[in-house]
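Justification of computing resources. Each target in the renewal requires a structure prediction run like the one illustrated here; the chain below, 157 residues long, is used simply to show the kind of job we budget for.
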Amino acid sequence: MNLQKTQLSVDEAKNIESYMSQGGMMRARLTAPRMLRFQDSLPRVEFPNNLHVDFYDMNLQIESFLDAKKGWYYETQNRIALTDSVVVIRLNGDTLRTEALYWEQSLKKFYTPNDVSLHSRDKIIYGKGFEADDNLLNYKFDTIRGFTQVGASKFPG
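Resulting structure tokens:
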């Protein structure tokens, strides 16, 4: 029997609904079917089976939402990592797609070093490397790989 072996503490919860606030205002609501909380040298929360986040404006109206197949929240770093079919949709129709997206809560920014596509009403931009504020209003690409004009008639008014 190995008495030196350390047991990893893992808590599991199902049907998660969690709220995040900034400055006393509700900013986001996360839902997920399953959550694992790891208490080891790098405390973290894992969402291994999909997650959905609604982001709210100052009037508590949904301004965008996010879906990913997997996610991690690193508690001591105040950082979120999302992977596998990450999609962020703003209510104005702007849609961001990538395989990995990171959210630095303290810096209020999203970023990815990966390939990304950003669909808007009149164009689709394909790039590698992306950074945006946490509202996805101000953004930049490290490299733009392609650009497609889209006719306004292809989107509902």
